[in-house]
Amino acid sequence: MKLLHTSDWHLGGSLFTKSRHSEHQRFLDWLLELIDRERIDCLLVAGDIFDATTPNNPAQGLYFDFLARAARSCCRHLVIVAGNHDSPSLLEAPRDLLKSLDIHVIGTAEKTPEKEVIALRDSSGNLELVICAVPYLRERDVRDSRPGQSQEEKQRQLAEGTRKHYQTVCEEAVRLSREGDRTVPIVATGHLLTLGGKTEDGDGVRDLYVGNLGAVGADIFPAVLDYVALGHLHVPQRVGGSERVRYSGSPIPMGFGEANQRKLVLLVDLADSVQIREIAVPRFQRLHRIRGDWERILAESASLKGENESLWLEIDYDGEELIVDLRARLEQEIADSSLEVLRLRNSRLSQGTSASQDRLAEGEQLAELSVFETFEHFLAADGIAEQQREPLRIAYREIIAKMSQEENE
Question: Is the dihedral of CA 246, 252, 253, 255 positive or negative?
């Protein structure tokens, strides 16, 4: 069988004020073309199909249109699991209907983990592959919460609970993988954070974790698994150096920190041995960061204008000269070009202005900030002493993570 591993589509997402709908449409069109070109048998989507638990109608339209088209393609099986951004109930609502099209959806951890095991068969009824379709595991799925626990106790229980969940699922998968005198491969999915996993500035992933709370090692995945298709981290990467445990990463850059990142989907060929091929995803919208003084910004933007390509910019001015009309100057320089400034940071101005008078840097809008960056602004604006800030940051991140979990539920 040929599997295609992808994740973290984040349909319905935006970058500051810019919709990503067109990029997502073009990616899904390209993905279908790839499926046909490579004769893919099974598509695995490892979570975060949507960017929010209540995706807008255009995002849902993209998703269901893709499923309808994929069901008519050469791809005989689709396996989709929910991520932390997804609404399990929304994904699972049409589950019985989709199952008739060989589209299998797992939105939340099952009370009996064996129900997460999917046996895929060909048109003749022969067993081809067993999938451990493990979705995003919430804290309540893998540990009993008790008041007064330390971070170390929470981490130990989360890791052990996750290990036991995979162990139980894999035990059932091993049983199902044996049919007659043959044994078929076993593949697992997951949407989680692994120890040492690489993230990028502004990707929205790292902010949800206090230290490495919730992170697990590659050793939680039983050795019987031929491949583990992970989602959650947007950087394509191997886990612990293992070829068989991989993040595919997001197909489009989620922020300017990923602007120069090579985006991938992973083709897994389950022949006599597991062969993995990285396939680069085309760039559908170019992002670019410029940081420096006015001369550097002016020179680089002039060079980019000459490329005549649609380009979204993040500008970080850190020159010595105090420029109070930086946005106006920039807009004048890039007028009548395909460049567009999505975010502007005037570090020099924010340093030279008291926080009580100006909570945000010149040209920076509240909509441009993450909830964590906004919190940092208020810590500074309210004059909170540095030694008091870290406990407040930890508490704030725990609250945001809890709110996100309750919203998903």
Answer: negative
